[in-house]
DNA sequence: AAATTTATGGCACAGCATGACAGATGACAA
DNA sequence: TTGTCATCTGTCATGCTGTGCCATAAATTT
């Protein structure tokens, strides 16, 4: 990895940390991009070369999560019931979070806290999650040999799986102190889901 | 109803129709608020007194839907299994759409077509739907005597119900010609949901 | 060291959204 | 009808987000 890329990565993280701290201190909407840029000594124009928008900073973790979860899904055997594959993939994503460095963990918790306390951001976060959902639905449909434009089942299966983790993340309103606590919550939601469905409900035909 | 209110309603609908047609003709993002305002002879400032934002025009139907569905939920007996109550309420909402005037139907289909062909709008629509979801989750939690801040089940039940109709609406990608066709799709999704869960999965304890 | 690719900053600009104020218009009572 | 009051509307000013463009600076390659 060259100097250039290392430098870019450093700037990206500097922006990220500065922005998150500013958001938490004085609120998301009242913090301007210019302020963020100023606090890391770059121009506002450059900010938008690292993050496509102001909200992209807060939803940044989605990018990584989507990558991890889709890869994990790909690794599951094709003949496994799709909902089970999805739950597996989602658990892989969660465990990846657990392996994160302290800095990464801190960032994630800050984003989570921001989203929790800001309905507008919560909405954006869900919308971003649904993007991932659509992509996974295509993959699940392919595995089942169904046309996603005609059959609703694949999309429905993915939607339920994603809704489960979303609820798991959202639900513990009162103070999310640490990563472990949060994962217990999400895992509780996943287990709740596991015993809620009829066997074979997610299979075509 | 006085002249004043009638006039307001007329303006609101004029804005709505003009905006939807412009969006469909030249695209959502390329249409400016000023253009919309101009085509109904009002100032841009006034536009924002009728709709809180440009996207509010496209997501307008959500306001009515939320009202209908929450009222319908309230009418269900408190001891009914919550998921069943939700499906009932959602079906009431759908049937209300069926009773709509031709103009209302046309507007709704336009909005639907816009959302279908614009990922950004689709995201906003989902975000709006989740707002409704949260409110209903509070009500369902109350009915079950659970604290929504602690227990995930109520939120999960509502999330699944809402995800079902969302998938029902989204799924028929290729040409949504009429209202009836759309409702068949959504109803198909609801029936799919009905036979996917274990009996009693949505009950506390 | 020169040539090439890529990142950055500054500038201009369009568009969305909001606050403030003054004038127009409907509501209502005398 | 007229006058008063509440409400709606347009105009103006303003702040902020996000993008295109171009010149400059930095890193990479040869």
Assembly state: homodimer
Strand content of chain A: under 5%
By DSSP (H or I, 4+ residues per run), the number of helices of chain A equals 10
Biggest chain-to-chain interface with counts:
A-B, 39 and 39 residues
What are the segments of chain A in which pLDDT stays under 50 over at least 5 consecutive residues?
none
CATH C-level class of the largest domain in chain A is Mainly Alpha
H/E series of chain A, N to C? Answer: HHHHHHHHHH
- Write down the CATH topology of the largest domain in chain A: Tetracycline Repressor, domain 2
Organism (chains A, B): Nonomuraea dietziae
InterPro entries (chains A, B): DNA-bd_HTH_TetR-type_CS, Homeodomain-like_sf, HTH-type_TetR-like_transc_reg, HTH_TetR, MftR_C
Pfam family, one (chains A, B): TetR_N
GO molecular function (chains A, B): DNA-binding transcription factor activity; transcription cis-regulatory region binding
What does this structure look like?
2 copies of one chain form a homodimer. Chain A has helices spanning 3-26, 33-39, 44-50, 54-58, 60-75, 82-98, 102-116, 119-144, 153-170, 179-194. With 205 residues, chain A is mainly α. Chain A has 2 domains: 3-56, Homeodomain-like (Arc Repressor Mutant, subunit A, Orthogonal Bundle); 59-194, Tetracycline Repressor, domain 2 (Orthogonal Bundle), CATH 1.10.357. The longest helix of chain A has 26 residues, at 119-144. The termini of chain A are far apart. In chain A, 33% of the residues are buried. The model of chain A has no long low-confidence stretch (mean pLDDT 95). The A-B interface holds A 119, 122-124, 126-128, 130-131, 148-149, 151-153, 155-156, 159-160, 163-164, 166-168, 170-174, 185, 188-189, 192-193, 195-198, 201-202 and B 119, 122-124, 126-128, 130-131, 148-149, 151-153, 155-156, 159-160, 163-164, 166-168, 170-174, 185, 188-189, 192-193, 195-198, 201-202. The first copy, chain A, binds a DNA duplex (30 and 30 nucleotides) through residues 2-4, 7-8, 32-34, 42-46, 48-49, 52-54. Chains A, B: InterPro entries: DNA-bd_HTH_TetR-type_CS, Homeodomain-like_sf, HTH-type_TetR-like_transc_reg, HTH_TetR, MftR_C. Chains A, B: Pfam families: TetR_C_14 (PF17754), TetR_N (PF00440).
């Amino acid at each position: 990895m060259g100097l250039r890329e290392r430098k870019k990565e450093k700037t990206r993280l500097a922006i990220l940390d500065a922005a998150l701290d500013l958001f938490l201190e004085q609120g998301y909407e009242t913090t301007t991009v210019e302020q963020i840029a100023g606090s890391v000594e770059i121009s506002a124009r450059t900010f938008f070369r690292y993050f496509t928008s102001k909200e992209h900073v807060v939803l940044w973790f989605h990018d990584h999560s989507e990558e991890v979860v889709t890869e994990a899904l790909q690794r599951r055997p094709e003949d496994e019931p799709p909902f089970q594959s999805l739950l597996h993939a989602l658990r892989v994503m969660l465990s990846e979070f657990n392996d994160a460095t302290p800095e990464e963990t801190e960032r994630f918790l800050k984003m989570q806290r921001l989203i929790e306390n800001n309905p507008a951001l919560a909405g954006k976060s869900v919308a971003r999650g649904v993007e991932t959902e659509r992509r996974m639905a295509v993959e699940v449909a392919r595995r089942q040999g169904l046309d996603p434009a005609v059959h609703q089942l694949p999309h429905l299966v993915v939607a339920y799986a994603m809704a489960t983790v979303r609820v798991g993340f959202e639900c513990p309103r009162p103070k999310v102190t640490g990563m472990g606590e949060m994962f217990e919550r999400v895992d509780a939601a996943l287990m709740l889901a596991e015993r809620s469905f009829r066997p074979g409900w997610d299979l075509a035909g």
